[in-house]
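In response to the reviewer comment on reproducibility (Comment 2.3), we provide here a single inverse folding case reported in full, input and output, so that an independent group could reproduce the run without further information from us. The structure tokens appear first.
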């Protein structure tokens, strides 16, 4: 009886119950994104050394450049997951829209001499238009046929860029953006922090758009299409239009990422047009956890960081001094990335996003709060 009295005194003058671990976990899940965003926003002001993770202090230009690239690809993987994880569309041509945003903006700057804002807007429109046209064709087929059509479009775009028609794309060398036409606050090593904030803003925008789209009525139809497209048709809905919406939205986010990449690298590179680029996005999504809110972002950030840091490790003196049986494989960054990917897939089915649920066991009867235990003892629900 006294136990029940104490539990009902929670809102009165009686002793307050200590917060349960479950409440603390819920608060942590609710507020950690805001805390992480705050930490990322103030990172350029920090001189914290992170040996092994970064070459220099956290706020140094080199570290900020790497972090900005990681944030960029974290956002790009999140946008790509609109197709793979949310709608069940395996596209091998997503890099095409990323490259379209970068190359189109660069061409408007170089050839037409337009201001950056106008060129960026036109470049984004070109990426969206390209996604609309190619998506309307690719989505006429389903399954592996869809994947093959998107791969064919990607290969055609990559060949077109490498052939350098009319000297517009720069071929295998790419084309540098004219520094005098770019915003002065985004050019030069002294403005690396501004570029970092641009990449962070792109990540936040992408996460917000994807979250809003997934929770919308259209997002629920995407989920139904992924689970059983025929059932969606039986309900009287036409999957084609919904899939095209997802395709164009993902293409628009990719084109916007191409603009950010143009600012970060100072030019357009043909490597962003290849199907290998899209395969990297696929690995990022699977690594982080396809169809989850934060998984693709985490996978994109981790993969990009590992791609850069493992390259430095492969060329280090420590690896060079190893026996040949170890030195040869460890000197290949792709081998190290492959080992990391295989380990995560086997040890963490569902990606890194499933790690917290594996570390924190589900609440059982022994984890019940005193209030719930008292209600159960008194036959209350």
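Designed residues, in position order:
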């Amino acid at each position: 009886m006294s136990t029940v009295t104490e539990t009902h005194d929670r809102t009165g003058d009686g002793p307050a119950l200590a917060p349960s671990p479950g409440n603390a976990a819920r608060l942590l899940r609710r507020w950690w994104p805001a805390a992480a965003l705050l930490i990322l926003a103030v990172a350029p002001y920090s001189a914290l050394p992170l040996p092994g993770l970064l070459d220099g202090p956290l706020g140094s230009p080199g570290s900020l450049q790497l972090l900005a690239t990681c944030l960029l690809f974290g956002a790009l993987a999140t946008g790509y997951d609109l197709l793979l994880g949310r709608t069940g569309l395996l596209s091998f041509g997503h890099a095409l829209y990323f490259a379209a945003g970068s190359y189109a903006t660069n061409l408007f700057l170089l050839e037409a001499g337009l201001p950056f804002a106008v060129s960026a807007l036109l470049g984004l429109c070109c990426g969206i238009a390209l996604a609309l046209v190619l998506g309307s064709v690719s989505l006429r087929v389903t399954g592996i046929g869809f994947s093959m059509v998107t791969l064919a479009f990607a290969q055609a775009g990559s060949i077109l860029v490498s052939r350098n028609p009319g000297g517009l794309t720069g071929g295998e060398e790419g084309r540098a953006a004219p520094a005098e036409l770019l915003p002065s606050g985004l050019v030069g090593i002294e403005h690396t922090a501004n570029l970092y904030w641009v990449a962070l803003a792109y990540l936040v925008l992408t996460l917000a758009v994807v979250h809003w789209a997934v929770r919308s009525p259209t997002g629920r139809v995407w989920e139904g299409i992924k689970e059983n497209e025929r059932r969606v048709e039986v309900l009287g809905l036409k999957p084609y239009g919904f899939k095209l919406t997802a395709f164009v939205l993902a293409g628009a986010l990719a084109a916007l990422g191409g603009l950010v990449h143009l600012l970060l690298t100072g030019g357009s590179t043909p490597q962003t047009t290849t199907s290998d680029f899209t395969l990297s996005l696929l690995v990022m999504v699977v690594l982080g956890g396809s169809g989850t809110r934060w998984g693709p972002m985490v996978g994109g950030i981790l993969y990009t960081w590992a791609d850069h840091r493992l390259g430095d490790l492969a060329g280090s003196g420590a690896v060079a001094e190893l026996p040949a049986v170890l030195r040869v494989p460890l000197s290949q960054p792709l081998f190290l990335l492959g080992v990391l990917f295989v380990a995560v897939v086997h040890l963490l089915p569902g990606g890194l996003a499933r790690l917290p649920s594996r570390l924190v066991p589900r609440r059982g009867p022994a984890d019940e709060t005193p209030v719930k235990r008292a209600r159960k003892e008194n036959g209350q629900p």
